[in-house]
Amino acid sequence: MGFRSKLLWSVVGWLVVFVFFFPVLWMWMESLKTEPQAASSPPTIFFLPTLEEFQTVLSGDFPPFFINSAVASIASTFLVLVLGLPAAYALAIRPVRKTQDTLFFFISTRFLPFAASLVPLYLLARDLQLLDNIFALTLIYTTINLPLGVWLLRSFLLEIPNDLFEAARVDGAGFRTEILRIVVPLIAPGLAATSLICLIFSWNEFFYAVNFTSSVAATAPIFLVGFISGRGLFYAKLAAAATLSSLPVLLAGWIAQKQLIRGLTMGAVK
Amino acid sequence: MKIAGRSILPTVAGRGGERVITAASISRREGWARRLPLLPALVYVFVMTQIPFLLTIYYSFFSWNLLKPGSFRFSGLDNYSTLLTDETVRTAVLNTVVLTVCVIGISVILGMGVAMILNSEVFGKGLMRTLMIAPFLIMPTAGALVWKHMLLNPLYGLLPYFLTPLGLGRVDWVSRFPMATVVTVEVWRWTPFMMLIILAGLQSQNPEVLEAAKVDGANALQAFRRITLPLARPFIELGALLGSLFVVQTYDSIYMLTYGGPGSDTTNIPFLLYLVAFQGYSIGKASAIGVVAVILTIIVATFALRTLFSIFQVEARR
Description:
The complex is a heterodimer.
Chain A lengths: L2 H29 L3 H4 L13 H8 L2 H31 L6 H12 L7 H10 L6 H24 L4 H9 L4 H12 L1 H17 L2 H6 L7 H6 L9 H21 L1 H8 L6
Helix pairs in contact in A: 1-13, 3-13, 4-7, 4-10, 5-7, 7-10, 10-13, 10-14
Chain B lengths: L7 H5 L3 H7 L5 H8 L3 H21 L2 E2 L9 E2 L3 H8 L1 H33 L5 H8 L1 H4 L2 H12 L6 H6 L9 H4 L1 H26 L3 H9 L4 H28 L4 H6 L11 H11 L3 H33 L3
Antiparallel strand pairs in B: 1-2
Helix pairs in contact in B: 4-17, 5-17, 6-12, 6-14, 12-14, 13-14, 14-17, 16-17
C-alpha cells in the first residue's frame, strides 16, 4: 500500500473512531467541569478541570450502589468458575456421553429470554423475602453467566494436549490432582477470559437489578436511573457517576482486549 | 458429526437436561465418575431456568393480578387470545423486529467497514481499536443517558447546538424520532462488537491471497467481493446472530431513553413484559408473553446455535 493511500485510510479511520469514541470522551470532559460549564450553550470546550463532582458523588449515596455491583459481580463470577470448571472438564477432557446435547442445553438457557423465567423467579424471591437482596441477584447472575462460562472454559480445555493427562493418569493421578496440578495452571488465561466476560455481563446488567432490588441491594446502574428526567443542573454529576460506574468494565475490557472476542463468541473465535 | 439442532426445542422447553443424567453409561462406575463434575452446574442451570419456565407455562393459563388477593383463577387460553387481539402486543412484536433488524444490519455494515480499515496498514491501529471498543464496554444505562442528556437534549445538547446553523437546532430528537434514537444508541454500542468479530475473521486470512489477486489484475471491488467477503462471511453471520440474540432483549436503553414511548412507539417485547408484570402486576398475561417470547427466540436461536456449532466444529475438534 502506498503512502498516500495509507494516509487517506488513516484519516478516514481516525474520523470514524472519533465519532464512536466521542460520547465517551464528552462524558469524561463533562465529569471534570462545574455544573454551569457542563450545561452551557455554547458548549464549554476549554475549561479548568475539577474533581469537584467526583467528590460529590463519592461522598454522597453512590458508594453503596458501587459496592453492591462489585459484590454481585465478583461473587457470581466466582460461582461460575467453581461450578463451570468441573462441568467444562467433564465436557472436554473425559467427555460424557451426549456431550453435544449437554453443550446445547447449556447454551440454549443463555439465550432463553428472561421473559421465560422472570415471573416465577420474582414470585419465589418475593415469597422467600429475597427481593432487594444482593444474594438473590448473585444467584441470578450466576445463572446468566454459567452457560457462557462452561462453553468458554471448555474451549480452553480442548487446547490442552491429551498427552499431559495420559502421563498423569499413568502416574496414578486422581481427578483432584488432575484439576489442580494440570488443568488450573494451564488454563489460567481461560479463567481470566471467563472472569472478564462474566464481570462485564453482571456489572452492566440492568433488567433484574432494576426489578428485583429497590434500595438495599441496588447496583450502580440503578443509581443512574435517578438521572433519567432530572431537571436543573445535574450534567456534571451524572457524568461523574456514569464515568465511575463504567470504569471497572472499561479498564478490564481494555486490559484484556485479546480475551474479549473469544469470550463474546463463547470461544468460537480466537 | 451429529449436530443436535433438533434438540433445541426440547432443551429450551425443559426436557433436555434429564436425558444427560439418565444416559446409559459405558460402565456404571466410570460413567458416574465422568458425570459427577458435570452435575452441579447442570442441576443449577436446570433448577434456575427450566423449572421456572415450566411454572411460566403453568401461570400463563391463569388470570392473576398480584395486587388483588384471591384473583388467582384458571382462565384457559384467555391470556393467549388477549395477546392475539391486543394492539400493544402486535406493536411490541413489530418494534422488536424493526429494532433488531435495523441495529444488526447497520452495525454489521459499519463494523465491517471499520474492521477493514483496521485490517489495512493505517497509523495507530492499536489505539484505534482500543478506543473503538469503548462504546461496547460502557455501562449501557450510562451510555444511554449521555446520549439523551448531553448529546441530544434540545437545550443543552451538543448535536442541536451544532445543527443550529443548518436550521435544525432545538429539535427534540428523542421525542420526535424515538425509534431512530434507540436504534442509533444501540448501533453505537453494537458496531464495536461486530467490528471485533469481523476483524478476527479478516486477520485469520492470508494477505498473500489478496496480493496475488491484485497482481492478477483484480480491482478493489472484485477483490472484496470474491476474496474478502467470502472469508469474512462466517464471522459476519456469527456476529449478526449472536448480536441479534442480545439485541432482541434490549431493555436498558429503552428504559433510559424513551421508557417505551411516546405511546408505545418504542415498546419492544422485553419492555412490554416489564410493563405488564411490574406496572400492571398481571402475572398470567406476563407469563403468556414469556411463552410467546420463548417461541420467537427459539426460531432465531435455532439458526444462531447451528452457526455457532458449525464454527466450533471447524475450529476446535479433538
